[in-house]
Amino acid sequence: MKYTSLALAGIIIGGIAAILVLKFIMRCVEAKHAERARRREEEAVPVSPPASGTYSSVDVRVEMGSVDRFLDDILREKPARFTPENLREFTGDYAERLGAGGFGVVYRGRFPGGVQVAVKILHRTLDRRAEEQFMAEVATAGRTYHINLVRLYGFCFDATTKALVYEYLENGSLDRVLFDAAAAAALEFDTLHGIVVGTARGVRYLHEECQHRIIHYDIKPGNVLLAGDYAPKVADFGLAKLCSRDNTHLTMTGARGTPGYAAPELWLPLPVTHKCDVYSFGMLVFEILGRRRNLDTQRPAESQEWYPRWAWQRFDQGRFGEVMAASGIRSKDGEKAERMCKVALWCIQYQPEARPSMSSVVRMLEGEEQIARPVNPFAYMATMDAISSSSSGGGGVSTATSASASASGDSAQSTRHDICH
Ligand SMILES: Nc1ncnc2c1ncn2[C@@H]1O[C@H](COP(=O)(O)OP(=O)(O)OP(=O)(O)O)[C@@H](O)[C@H]1O
Ligand SMILES: [Mg+2]
């Protein structure tokens, strides 16, 4: 009897203890869930535009002295907000200028912890709509991560200073390497091929893998930055809308993009899709293949021909060896080089629908997808020339001329920059 009641008491006490332990575990799990949800919510809060031109104190502003806070933000992959004083400190009072482009001047800097940065001070005074876009772009670019995209660490939005703070890439932009004979000659073909594939992956991510498709509108060697090991990263993908390219990027024709890389639909009144980036990517591949600008007015007159068409003619006539010889490509790299040429020819097709998707481009470059024989991407020029000369009695502007004028990166680019400034 005594033993039975002892056993009963034991069972009851054991039961109560088990219930208490269970409850404790459930509390812990609930608390963990709540903490996770709170963190997720915090991370999902967009950097929202100001309601009345001012920002509340709960945004991600970085005051001097709260360095820990912004380093935390960076660690949590949230674009940080800097003050003009922060920027001055990072850049040592703007001591080292890295370069300048259509949007502003870029300076080298360093976070207090030692991480190197590139600070782009934007030229333009932004109106209210542009201000809102600036914030939207910060929210987009600040949350778009890919190994082949330049990382945006933060921004400054102040009455006097609008700036973007990016990760710093040791080898600068591809144009500086590619169009400098000595620097380009020092690069192995495999490195160049790696740059092509990495850039394609970056654009593929913008088009097909991030939450909202991002059209870059300005793929060109100046917007491909190179890390210390020449790994490429696409830059400025958040700026397409920010600077309202309709008005600023191209001038005389009212088109967008940069001449020489901009697809025909950007300079003709045709609908524009993400395939305009595929076209620009094709032009970039030609410049990598040729290790020269597609239209290079610095060259002797006899070799000034527009490179993409010159390469097409050689390819079409089965004389691809001449393309390889012209840029010193060795026969062991012939297969990869021909693949690059075929992909580029598909990318620059006049009809956007005829251009491949970027995922297909990546697969073709990597040899995982068969590449059909490209069709002539320049056939439209002959047709349009015939139309323009018959309607103007032979005095019309040649389409071939306007296409390669559009290809003339040098002169037209400086026009664009003048206007942007
Ligand atoms: N994150 C960076 N790391 C290292 N160098 C950079 C970085 N960003 C820009 N630069 C340097 O600054 C130069 C100017 O860049 P910027 O983006 O302003 O001009 P762009 O690319 O020539 O033209 P666009 O205005 O069309 O982008 C680049 O050519 C590059 O050399
Ligand atoms: Mg740029």
How many β-strand runs?
Answer: 8
N-to-C order of helices and strands: HHEHEEEHEEHHHEEHHHHHHHHHHH
Total individual domains: 2
N- and C-termini, Cα separation: 99 Å
Architecture per CATH nomenclature, i.e. the level-2 architecture of the largest domain: Orthogonal Bundle
Name of the CATH superfamily of the largest domain: Transferase(Phosphotransferase) domain 1
The largest pleated sheet is described as: 6 strands, mixed
Number of helices: 18
CATH topology of the largest domain: Transferase(Phosphotransferase), domain 1
**In order across it, which strands form the biggest sheet?**
1-5-6-4-3-2
Helix content: 40-55%
Cα-based radius of gyration, to the nearest Å = 28 Å
Unreliable residue stretches: 36-65, 242-254, 394-402, 407-421
Hey, roughly how much beta strand do the residues contain? 5-15%
CATH class of the largest domain: Mainly Alpha
Shape verdict: globular
Label the structural class.
Answer: alpha+beta
Domain Protein kinase: 92-379
Transmembrane segments: 6-26
GO cellular component, one term: membrane
Pfam families: PK_Tyr_Ser-Thr
Short note summarizing the structure:
The protein has 421 residues and is α+β, with helices and mostly antiparallel strands. 49% of the residues lie in helices and 9% in strands. The protein has 18 helices and eight strands.
Walk me through what this model shows.
The structure is a single chain. This protein has 421 residues and is of the alpha+beta class. The chain folds into two domains: 108 residues, Phosphorylase Kinase, domain 1 (2-Layer Sandwich); 247 residues, Orthogonal Bundle (Transferase(Phosphotransferase), domain 1). 49% of the residues lie in helices and 9% in strands. It has 18 helices and eight strands. Strands 1-5-6-4-3-2 form a six-stranded mixed β-sheet. A two-stranded antiparallel ribbon has the order 7-8. Magnesium ion (MG) binds next to loops.
